[in-house]
Amino acid sequence: APLVGVFALQGDVREHVRVLEGLGARTRPVRRAADLTGLDGIVLPGGESSVMDRLAGLMGLKEPLADAIGAGLPAYGTCAGMILLAREIQNPAPGQGSLGVLDVTVRRNAFGAQVDSFEADLEVPAVSAEPVHAVFIRAPAVLRAGGEVEVLASVPASRLSAAPPELGLDDAAQVPVAVRQGRVLATSFHPEVTGDHSFHREFLRGL
Ligand code: GLN
């Protein structure tokens, strides 16, 4: 069975571990650089990306993690994990950086506050024949996706809490919420907290 690391300095680590082990993977919490040795893949959970970024820096994990993913370690980030993977954050917290291994610009909390959380059934033909049930909790949106980034699912820009033109989008735009670039997969939403594990299955399939 593949050995999947779960970034464990902050976030909904246990939920990912439960899903991954339920699908037959072995898991290892990742808190320091040495924990990366021998992994077949790594998951970056939902949580608070600015805290994750700061703690990863303090623990000396940030650079080794970015290097490992850059060198081909398959990665899957959900929500805050997507932000951590991104090349650019449009509205970072003060001092917040990222790993820069996924060529997208993300906007944090793009759909509003906690109270604006929503659920949607998304068409994701690349991942599942059935619609994927998605939960968005203070979720990021992808405002720009680089040429090598494959958009797997989108929602209408009308879902955004800011006027799309203010974000450089037109009102009819579709905003990516699931993307893939090579072996890096990211979703704005949290399959680890719904019963729909299509994305985890898709991630494990590639390992
Ligand atoms: N808004 C959070 C952040 O900026 C992400 C929320 C989540 O992971 N549910 O990291």
UniProtKB/TrEMBL annotation:
One of its GO terms (cellular component) is glutaminase complex. The active site is at C79 (nucleophile), H190 (charge relay system), E192 (charge relay system). InterPro entries: Class_I_gatase-like (IPR029062), PdxT/SNO (IPR002161), PdxT/SNO_CS (IPR021196). Transmembrane segments: none annotated. Keywords: Glutamine amidotransferase, Hydrolase, Lyase, Pyridoxal phosphate. L-glutamine binds at G47, E48, S49, R108, I137, R138. One of its GO terms (molecular function) is pyridoxal 5'-phosphate synthase (glutamine hydrolysing) activity. The keyword Ion transport does not apply. Pathway: Cofactor biosynthesis; pyridoxal 5'-phosphate biosynthesis. PROSITE patterns: GATASE_TYPE_1, PDXT_SNO_1, PDXT_SNO_2. Its EC number is 4.3.3.6, 3.5.1.2. Pfam families: SNO. It catalyses: aldehydo-D-ribose 5-phosphate + D-glyceraldehyde 3-phosphate + L-glutamine = pyridoxal 5'-phosphate + L-glutamate + phosphate + 3 H2O + H(+); L-glutamine + H2O = L-glutamate + NH4(+). Belongs to the glutaminase PdxT/SNO family. Catalyzes the hydrolysis of glutamine to glutamate and ammonia as part of the biosynthesis of pyridoxal 5'-phosphate. The resulting ammonia molecule is channeled to the active site of PdxS. This is Pyridoxal 5'-phosphate synthase subunit PdxT. It comes from Micrococcus endophyticus. The lineage of its organism: Bacteria, Bacillati, Actinomycetota, Actinomycetes, Micrococcales. The gene is pdxT.
